[in-house]
Design a protein that fits this description.
There is one protein chain. By secondary structure, this protein is an alpha+beta fold. The chain is built from 2 helices and 2 strands, in the order ββαα. α1 crosses α2 (50-96). The chain is elongated, with a radius of gyration of 23 Å. The mean pLDDT is 91.
Length: 97
């Protein structure tokens, strides 16, 4: 089965990218996000060269992703602890009542 080709634009350059069927919107959103990050870096810094801009954007995006994962893991742990406390309280209430 042939994969659809999606055209994306990053810093004024068009790229045609093969994409699994049904994921075209996600690819377009990812490319738009990358493009906006790269444009922001290019506009707000003295970094010259598309490759360097891409590396800085990739590092920034990766940092954000890793920070989000840590935050999510912390929230999951807090949720497990609260669920455990709730279960204990409900068990105690059922024994007393």
């Amino acid at each position: 089965m042939e994969k659809p080709t999606v055209s994306v634009n990053i810093l004024g350059q068009e790229y045609k990218i093969n994409c699994p069927k049904g994921h075209e919107t996600e690819l377009t959103e990812a490319a738009d996000y990358l493009n906006s990050q790269m444009q922001e870096i290019r506009t707000n810094s003295k970094i010259i060269g598309t490759e360097r801009v891409a590396i800085i954007a990739a590092l920034n995006i990766t940092h954000d992703m890793l920070s989000s994962r840590k935050y999510a893991r912390s929230n999951e742990q807090q949720l497990r602890e609260l669920t455990s406390q709730l279960d204990s309280a409900l068990t105690h209430t059922n024994k007393v009542g």
